[in-house]
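To: structure desk
From: M.T.
Subject: fold request, one chain
Message: Could you run this one when you get a chance? Sequence is below, nothing fancy, just the single chain.
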Amino acid sequence: MHGTLPASAPEVTAQPIPPACDEVERTVGESRSWLVEHQAGDGHWLFELEADATIPAELILLHHYLGEIDDRLERRLAVYLRRIQGAHGGWPLFHDGDFNISASVKAYYALKLVGDPVDAPHMRRAREAILAHGGAAKSNVFTRIALAMFEQVPWRATPLIRVEAMLLPKWFFFHIDKVSYWSRTVMVPLFVLATLKTKARNPRRVDIRELFVVPPERERDYMTNPTGSRIGNILLVLDRVGRFLEPLFPKFLERKGIERAMAFVKERLNGEDGLGGIFPAMANAVMAYDALGYTKDHPAAAIARESIAKLLAHGKDESYCQPCLSPIWDTGLALHAMMETGLRADSATVARAADWLAERQILNVKGDWAATRPEVRPGGWAFQYRNDHYPDVDDTAVVAMALHRVDPEKYRERIARAAEWIVGMQSANGGWGAFDADNTHYVLNHIPFADHGALLDPPTADVSARCIGFLAQIGYGRDHPAMARGLEYLRREQEPDGSWFGRWGTNYIYGTWSALAAFNAAGEDMTAPHIRKAVDWLKSRQRADGGWGEDCATYWPERKAEVKASTPSHTAWAVLVLMAAGEVDSPQVARGIRYLLAAKRESGKWAEELYNAVGFPRVFFLRYHGYSAYFPLWALARYRNLAAANARRPAHGL
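Reply: Done. Structure tokens follow.
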């Protein structure tokens, strides 16, 4: 990233600032200057997006699957993996988290592939932890599939996965259109790999037999019922029956299934941004092309490989692989923060960011979402640089709100198309999912493949709130059918303690921020009991240091109250919530602001190690490195603005 404007560019609307706000004003200026410096030349922002050990470990496994070992890169990935090893000996799903068997098995195997000796202290500690948790046989389905391809477990350790699934009719209980976009793009090339039962080249013949309590070929207890329900038991029986019959499956159906699967992949390859814009789908596509005999220089296979290289993040001595890139999301949110600081629409920083976003609206591709909404015109934005088949409802609402703040007339047509698409994507229950409408085929959560618990993309409170906030900001009244149904959905989703669940940000503080921002924008009575209950809950969660925090462990119901430390992101969301509820003068907001002013910053960006988001609850967590830059800035600037204007509540959808 390169700065393009002087750090002190004074593009600020002059407003009287009370003397008590001098420190706030100074911090806003420093943080805004830092953000300006980190804007790319074409106007966008991009910050690192970090997951756990799984993705960098899988990249090493991919190299060895293909027999294309990159020792230099793998040594750098190994440095990262060793650094994030937990005190418990294994690898967690988020910073300072509990031991996770699947992440630990993949990280251990990756380090052994790189050449770490099994008697090294960190490998010994990892092995002891894995064996203490039941060994590699207890890994999740995705890990066991990888181990099957490396011939470390038999294929019976995985659910029956057949490419003929691509030929199933839409009325069948399983159809590829009925799962989420991320499951769809990961599963389709995986169908090919599992059907062909491909084998990794593994040129150094590295194995991990030492990670099994029982030798893997003698282990009989691989398969589990993901939900524990009767339906899950029935599906397990059907899985065994299907495996028994598998040799009898007609070859012509297999060939037809492979043909349809690869046609699906080819249509959605998405250039150098990769299939679905996410690493697991890209990696599976690369392996599928390899398994089908495509040469490395075949255009489709080559572009699939190139897409993975773009995900690497390099530090001084180490590297890691990101699960995906977040430029639209980062730019949309950073633009909101910039506008909040007072930058005018005609400032270079704002104008370039807004134009960059506007150019990336998807207007001509009817993506997979059209399977349930064929009559709706495209109009969304993706999360990545490009991902035309999979625009993101959440990104679309954030970006369209930002463009409306910048210049509602200039971007009128784009905002209108976004609104048309978002209204069209509303689900039957009044809420919005992230990528599809009515993706609520909950019976699929019972299939043996679904032990990761993230097969579907049902409506969620945070995404729905963003849509309501956007529609309210551009003038949709509370009596508009989409608004009325959305608001009712949001009220229904409130937790008994007054909070809202955060599906895409950690966790209830993020969800509550989303919900109250939407209610405020929609003109809800902010003295209503459900709003005050949320405010009371939030105030009760403020910590002694004045900040707020929330651990990723809160995605386990029995650990809902856990928190390790206050973070700038959580504190910013909490302060924004309270201000949306008219609490700008409350002592809780004042303490939150003081926490942000005192919290450690590295130049204009706040220090934040704890993870602040989630990909799939209880399975896959994220740390948006940009959150600790633009959210605290946004909160401080809004506080300054409301205090200076003697206003009680913000006027925007976010």
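Reply (cont.): Confidence is low (pLDDT under 50) at residues 1-19. Let me know if you need anything else for the meeting.
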